Amino acid sequence: MTSPAPAASPLTRRERWAVLTAAFAGLAFVGFGLGLMPVASLSVSQSLMGDGYTQALGGYWFARYTAILMLGAAIGGLLLGSLGDRLGRTRAMGISIVCYSFFAGLGGFVQTQEQMLVLRFLVGLGVGGMWPNGVVLVSECWTRASRPVVAGVMGAGINVGILLLSQFVHLFPITPTSWRWIFWVSALPALLGLLVILLLPESPAWLARRARPSPGAGGVGTPTPPSSPGKSGGLRELFRPPLLRPTLVGIALAAIPLVGAWAASKWTIPWADKVASAEHPGYKAIVQGWWALGATLGSFTGAQVAAWLGRRTSYFLIALGTTLLTIAMFQLTAPLRPSFLPVVFAQGFVATLFFGWLALYLPELFPTRVRATGAGLAMNTGRFATAFGVLAAGILFSMTGGSYPVIGTYAALIYALGMIAIVWAPDTSRTKMED
User: Fold this and answer.
1) Model-wide pTM > 0.85
2) What are phi and psi of 111, to 5 degrees?
């Protein structure tokens, strides 16, 4: 009989801050990449299509770029989320950062729309892997007492990146004759990915789980191999009781705000570009900046709201508020009107409360052995739905002759489904992350 493997040492304060900083930066660069095509897609399409470009085709290609990115993110979240349970959260997160950065940078060399589609899919693989591994790594490295605040910081990460991008392109506008440089800038975070792989400490919870005895692996005290998620069956375990219900609930609760965000909220940027580009070429960046500022505050606050009001009540109220504000944004105002930017800010704030909420809630649904896989599955299955939802929105956009208010209003109704889905959600308020 071999002696039990030693327990993993807890991280020092400096190491915990290093984990939080690296994961936040990784998500911020994800936001930079996610915000790129809403602000640049019409310019890219005009440049690559030349005389064949029309406003309707521009909206159609925006939908295709968005859908293919979401499809890649869905697949990447499943593959790289599972990798986080096998190889470790840190290594999987670093691989994700390198992936989305490298392929984003290659976008500066494309010559056709189809080439850009392929690269946006590959970018999506890394985007999908970053969220579950980064959020789970941080949730396992910080104490329970600070988790709502830390979850809020992680929820805000993506929107901080979008906000930074909006300010960047406001100073240096993206036009049909000047857009490739922004993709080359997007390659720089690959350096962060390499540093994460080489230097960032691993989750003590994951290390401890790996060191536990594995049945049939050589007796008591035999560590679980790194390539195995312990006693877990991986994805198969998530679709068997007792994890089946939380898995399905997590998928539904993550899918609704994701589909709503990309099928409804993101249309405000190309709408602003269409209305104002001739007289105010920087207006689309201003709109994105107002939305991202609201979103940064909202995604940070979402975890606090979940802790204050309870997981279920807060989600219901967020869904209700987002539905009403999104309809108002597309029906009661329009780009260049004085009321437009304040409504965009308010919608960005309320709609992204979901993502701070999810950063707190999803890791609580699953035990350590399948936490990254489960969180990745929940978050990224929603992206499969998003891909199809955005394609459907693009088709509806073309059928309505390119009407942004119509497509935005119909897509806003997706948020209302959240008021129904939350009824089946378990209360995780007393869940301990070390379980």
Assistant:
1) no
2) -120, -10
